TrEMBL record:
GO BP: negative regulation of DNA-templated transcription
Protein name, entry field: DNA-binding GntR family transcriptional regulator
InterPro entries hit by this protein: Bact_HTH_transcr_reg, Tscrpt_reg_HTH_GntR, WH-like_DNA-bd_sf, WH_DNA-bd_sf
Gene Ontology molecular-function annotations: DNA binding; DNA-binding transcription factor activity
Length: 152
């Protein structure tokens, strides 16, 4: 049996056994490669077969999920989302006040032990959510309270 088919069967078995539920995120391609000791091309072939059978669906740059498409998505937060959430909590607690500078990208890299891309993505998410604004070559600052997202 081809390796891609072994992967397809394993995912279908996990769905049938309830280990994977509708809307749940699958492992990333890299994680599947490591788990199944398969090439990325082989994993992509397995995912293609599962998509064609409407067992899963893929959202570009986000990942693959167990179908159907209308099921609420279930996935663990990514590292940049965890960092952004941690910083947002700090803002809510008052660790960083309006117009106060957040830690620099280098400080975030050191504090969280992450890559530059991850630190950048965390700050971009905070900006997108309305917690912060960035002044190029100066820094990233907390927005005024009236611009914060709705907090419950």
């Amino acid at each position: 049996m081809p390796i891609y088919q072994v992967i397809v069967n394993a995912i279908k078995d996990d769905i049938a056994a309830g280990k994977l539920k509708p809307g749940q995120a699958l492992l990333t391609e890299a994680e599947m490669c490591a788990t199944h000791q398969a090439s990325r091309l082989t994993v992509r072939r397995a995912l293609e077969v599962l998509r064609e059978a409407d067992v899963i669906y893929t959202i570009r740059a986000d990942g693959s999920y167990v179908g159907p498409r209308d099921a609420p998505q279930i996935r663990e937060p990514r590292e940049f989302e965890k960092i952004a959430a941690d910083l947002a909590e700090g803002i809510k607690r008052g660790d960083y006040g309006p117009d106060q500078v957040l830690p620099s990208q280098l400080e975030l890299i050191e504090q969280y032990g992450v890559a530059k891309k991850t630190a950048s993505a965390a700050v971009a998410l905070l900006r997108e959510q309305g917690w912060v604004y960035t002044v190029p070559a100066i820094g990233t600052f907390v927005t005024s309270r009236d611009k914060w997202p709705n907090i419950r």
